[in-house]
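Narrative summary of target 7.
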Amino acid sequence: MREYTVAVVGIGMVGREMVRVLRQRNFPIKKLRILARRERDEEIDGQVYHVVPASLEAFEGVDIAFFAGTEGAKGASQQFGWGAVEKGTVVIDNGSDFRMDPRVPLVVPEVNPDALREHRGFVANPNCSTIQMVVALAPLHRVARIKRVVVSTYQAVSGTGTAAVRELEEQARAWAEGKDFPPPEVYPHRIAFNLFPHIGSLGEEFPGYYSEEVKMIRETRKILGEPDMAITATCVRVPVFNGHAEAINVQFERPISPEEAKEILEDAPGVEVVDDPEEALYPTPVDASGRDPVYVGRIRKDPSAENSLDIFVVADNIRKGAALNAVQIAEKMMEMGLI
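Modeled conformation, tokenized:
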């Protein structure tokens, strides 16, 4: 098997998880370079890695580069992405800058791997919430064709990054110790024992929608190849450390029973069905954290609209929602002979 010189750009929560996933999956690495803003050593799972400053020159001889920007982070792929491609590097970008660029495939390997055949050296990793939703919806869409999606998300603080995790920890500790809550710095409101429907920034394209909601709408349409699919989203930040959850209402063009949907999902790649509500068995962020699958449960008929189902979907947003999906893209490209 060919071995590859691999770079990971960024060593925050997603970058560290990318390194972890590459090791766990025995990715065929000849040499690993970790690039960031400054030179230093970083320890990941007991192994020390030397980090060097990112520059265009650092991509010389690199076969595959994973840009590990935490959701919303900008700069690295804008600054170095296409320059790395010009040096012969295949770029897989976790950031949001190029996801809707017509030159760039937006890929979830379980859903639309054929889009990789059109790559020009640059592939985008979708938004974490989008990834887990389309992994669950695509198998159903192939069978019954989706007319409309209404999704409400419950998103963990790890999606914002290390500082947000620390903020939740500090606020929870203050409560436990009977102290005043420290003022929020990362979020506009206190996150401990609270939640708010605000992820990202407001824009003009979808008035009143925050950017996370717009990403779910636009990215889902691109991945599924359905530019006019009716989708609406409300994205909520919740005081959970890791693991995003989504309540999804789906309307189909034909009737589909919960039993049929469950059978389809049980056979779907990347999906694990956890659906026995009488025994209080359904997906939760705690159970999904640190694991690969997208978990689906609470599969039930919506009696208020024809041909409609409700489902509950949970996944590790740092793992499947970022690092793992990026590595799976590279693995699929290797399998398809595209690298």
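The mean pLDDT is 96.
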